Amino acid sequence: xxxxxxxxxxxxxxxxxxxxxxxxxxxxxxxxxxxxxxxxxxxxxxxxxxxxxxxxxxxxxxxxxxxxxxxxxxxxxxxxxxxxxxxxxxxxxxxxxxxxxxxxxxxxxxxxxxxxxxxxxxxxxxxxxxxxxxxxxxxxxxxxxxxxxxxxxxxxxxxxxxxxxxxxxxxxxxxxxxxxxxxxxxxxxxxxxxxxxxxxxxxxxxxxxxxxxxxxxxxxxxxxxxxxxxxx
Length: 232
Hints:
Layout: H1 7-17, H2 21-33, H3 41-52, H4 57-69, H5 77-88, H6 93-105, H7 113-125, H8 129-141, H9 149-161, H10 165-177, H11 185-196, H12 201-211, H13 216-228
Helix pairs in contact: 1-2, 2-3, 3-4, 4-5, 5-6, 6-7, 7-8, 8-9, 9-10, 10-11, 11-12, 11-13
């Protein structure tokens, strides 16, 4: 193993020590992942914290993850929430999504589906597919909101349009059952086909069942729709 000094690492370290938040964040990531340095989660946390206290949103998010998962620190949902909130206030969609999870699961905060919905909506409007899918679940099941299948469909469609296979499978079920939309086996087949291509076994089983009741023309139409589909 080479013992030659790495000029790039030396420069990043010097910049980080001089207070450059971007360099502090990069150095934190290097220590967290063992990238060019020996993995050292304590060093990772220390450098993330330096960047985070300067308002660096990505560092704030990474600190939140470390505290939520107990990665290199004692698991602490209150600290996780603190750092997620700081990143979320800067419109970090991943932090907004994770905050929603904390409220939905009652981790570090009292369980509060209304707050979960607020944070997931913020993340969803920034294009976070997981948040869009979770909002679909909330509206479909009446979790903290009035049950509204039309709203559920709208959010599932946003997630499915980005290629989320679970959302695609659920959309298939809703079209098959006429839940929130007009019953449509062709649309159901299309969404099940897309989800099945990603390995969702439930979708593949549903396809087999649909094939027993659909005409060959309907199946061909659905297959053509699936082939033409592209994520947006």
